[in-house]
């Protein structure tokens, strides 16, 4: 061990440095300017860094929650730069569940949460890259979307057991209508004409547009017309995408039953 290295070890080991975003850390080993080990206490973590980065406070604690005070990068092989697809998807699910602005726009997400296992990005990324369709593209060249309530109907949690990747056209079929039904008091797919005297059943067939299914004087009859049309549409879509979606998704679509209030 050369003299300079010995001097620097004596100088730096034990020193406390302030970081820009993660509090203080302590040098616990020095093996050269590009190989410095520091320890964070809150939360506890040992990180390898460079002396230059340490002096300007540019050292990050991967165990410190950085996404809505819950999600953290964690220790492992996945990072936000090399694994941008997984990182972007991970950030989006936290935004849906805990983003104030998002929840104001979409209040049906107020009771939705991310499982604790996925607070650690390493766990989410491991799951993400194990999914057959995490990088699949739809007919428009867009990545499949992450869905939480097709495999487990009505799911209120993002987790390995409830999530899957589907094209936007499938994900769009299950956009919640709870806000509308709560205001109107009518089942999904059922509304009233302009005068309010007649019930009207309508269905949205995605890029094909909206279609009127008929006029009714009975709420149950109007809903049943919508239910029959919607379930038929879901099954037709499942058949169209068979082989290009997870087989679990295909089965869930074929067995899907529309309920009056979502």
Blueprint (SSEs and pairs):
Layout: H1 3-12, E1 16-18, E2 24-30, E3 36-41, E4 44-49, H2 51-55, H3 84-98, H4 100-105, E5 113-114, H5 121-130, E6 145-147, E7 157-158, E8 164-166, H6 168-171, H7 178-184, E9 190-192, E10 199-204, E11 210-216, H8 219-241, H9 247-254
Parallel strand pairs: 5-7
Antiparallel strand pairs: 1-2, 2-3, 3-4, 6-8, 9-10, 10-11
Helix pairs in contact: 8-9
Strand content: 15-25%
H and E order: HEEEEHHHEHEEEHHEEEHH
Q: Please, how many helices?
A: 9
Sheet with the most strands: spatial strand order? 1-2-3-4
How many beta-strand segments? Answer: 11
Helix fraction, binned, reads 25-40%
Shape estimate: elongated
Rounded average pLDDT: 92
Q: Tell me the span between the first and last alpha carbons.
A: 70 Å
The secondary-structure class comes to alpha+beta
Q: Profile the largest sheet.
A: 4 strands, antiparallel
Unreliable stretches covering 5 or more consecutive residues: none
Descriptive terms for the model:
single chain; 262 residues; alpha+beta; 9 helices; 11 strands
Would you mind describing this structure in some detail?
- The protein is of the alpha+beta class and 262 residues long.
- Helices cover 34% and strands 18% of the residues.
- It has 9 helices and 11 strands.
- The protein has helices at residues 3-12, 51-55, 84-98, 100-105, 121-130, 168-171, 178-184, 219-241, 247-254, and strands at residues 16-18, 24-30, 36-41, 44-49, 113-114, 145-147, 157-158, 164-166, 190-192, 199-204, 210-216.
- The strands form 4 sheets. The chain has a 4-stranded antiparallel beta sheet with strand order 1-2-3-4. It has a 3-stranded antiparallel beta sheet with strand order 9-10-11, with helices on one face.
- β3 and β4 form a beta hairpin.
- α8 packs antiparallel against α9 (247-254).
- The chain is elongated, with a radius of gyration of 26 Å.
């Amino acid at each position: 061990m050369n003299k300079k290295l010995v001097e620097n070890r004596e100088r730096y080991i034990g020193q406390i440095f302030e970081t820009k975003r993660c509090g203080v850390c302590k040098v616990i080993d020095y093996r050269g300017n590009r190989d410095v080990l520091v320890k964070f206490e809150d939360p506890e973590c040992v990180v390898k860094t460079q002396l230059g980065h340490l002096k300007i406070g540019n050292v990050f604690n991967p165990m410190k929650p950085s996404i809505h005070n819950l999600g953290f990068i964690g220790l492992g092989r996945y990072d936000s730069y090399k694994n941008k697809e997984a990182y972007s998807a991970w950030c989006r699910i936290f935004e849906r569940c805990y983003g104030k602005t998002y929840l104001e726009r979409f209040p049906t997400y107020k009771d939705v949460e991310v499982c604790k296992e996925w607070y650690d990005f390493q766990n989410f990324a491991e799951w993400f890259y194990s999914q057959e369709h995490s990088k699949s593209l739809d007919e428009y060249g867009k990545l499949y979307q992450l869905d939480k309530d097709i495999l487990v109907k009505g799911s209120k949690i993002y987790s390995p057991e409830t999530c899957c990747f589907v094209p936007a056209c499938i994900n769009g079929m299950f956009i919640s209508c709870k806000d509308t039904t709560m205001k109107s008091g009518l089942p999904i797919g059922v509304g009233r004409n302009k005068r309010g005297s007649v019930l009207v059943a309508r269905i949205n067939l995605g890029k094909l547009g909206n279609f009127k299914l008929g006029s009714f004087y009975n709420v149950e009859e109007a809903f049943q017309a919508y239910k029959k049309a919607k379930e038929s549409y879901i099954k037709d879509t499942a058949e169209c995408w068979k082989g290009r979606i997870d087989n679990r998704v295909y089965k869930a679509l074929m067995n899907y039953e529309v309920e009056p209030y979502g």
